[in-house]
């Protein structure tokens, strides 16, 4: 367990994990919510995708086989999905999912670019850079404890950030030659 | 430009100029950060002294009144200043974040080293 002396937010936490993974030569890094939403039994599925099917980033999605419900909460998810489809030409059914597995290539990418966050716009960046991103069907529970870092005001801010980032910044990400 | 505005501009820029010098002497302001402020107040001093030149330039550029031109210059100057400060803030943020990471990783590595030694 790595504990940071100053709370610098979610992104910083993920980044320090990626640094640790690189320094210690790990093959796969997993991003996982600790509030009881995610079930650890699905992690094997994600890791298997990376090991067997030559996938670079595996995302645990609730809606690969199931339909996305028409609720207010899913509206944001739909909008982000649409933006990703527009920019990266790929269907990501559950872009806000916090259950992801990254292989070495993705870990290196996190280490070389400080603007990468554990958010949907990073998926767009990685697709654009030519990484193989795949979604895997998982189940998620309702939050057992803790609070989401998104409230009404922050959700709007979050959406605006994501849309700006995906449409105006990630659109201009080019594949390296 | 009216005489009142010229006097206000002159006094304001002189005060800010000497405030800058004073803060640099007290080591509360870095010289490289103060250059923009010094330049800004210097330009304002020049503008309040040579008001005929300002008026000429303002009409050439199509401003309705030379006061507007003066305010426009101040606005542009402030926007540039804020933008520079924003960039500086982001850089500092990034540096603190990396320092934070470094400390955490180092502490973690030390901890593991200690555990390994105590087991042996």
Explain what this protein looks like in three dimensions:
- The complex is a heterodimer of chains A (177) and B (120).
- Chain A has 177 residues and is of the alpha+beta class.
- Chain A has one domain.
- A 4-stranded mixed beta sheet of chain A has the order 1-3-2-4, sandwiched between helices.
- In chain A, helix 3 packs parallel to helix 6.
- The longest helix of chain A has 18 residues.
- The mean pLDDT of chain A is 87.
- Chain B has 120 residues and is mainly alpha-helical.
- Chain B has one domain.
- Chain B contains 4 helices and no strands.
- In chain B, helix 1 packs antiparallel against helix 2 and helix 3 crosses helix 4.
- The radius of gyration of chain B is 25 Å and the shape is elongated.
- Chain B starts with a helix and ends with a helix.
- At the A-B interface, helix 1 of A face helix 4 of B.
